[in-house]
Specification:
The chain is an alpha+beta fold. Helices cover 41% and strands 11% of the residues. The N and C termini lie far apart (32 Å).
Length: 71
């Protein structure tokens, strides 16, 4: 069931420029379901663009996650 208080403002894939997509759509929250190889770079971009992130990616090590726990 669709929540009337939420809306999908964009959907991207690896062919899109994440910074441009964020700047054009101005999301409040970004949900990332990418791979462990790309999520760290994406998360840094999301934070730099002053957005909140929900990460659904699996396969990350504790040492990869640790730097983002303080943010």
């Amino acid at each position: 069931e669709q929540d009337p208080d939420l809306s999908l403002v964009a959907s991207t894939d690896r062919s899109h420029d994440l910074v441009s997509a964020i700047q054009q759509t101005k999301p409040e929250v970004i949900v990332d379901f990418t791979t462990a190889e790309s999520v760290i770079k994406n998360l840094a971009t999301i934070i730099e663009q002053d957005c909140c992130a929900v990460i659904g990616t699996t396969g990350l090590t504790e040492s990869e996650i640790q730097p983002f726990k303080i943010i």
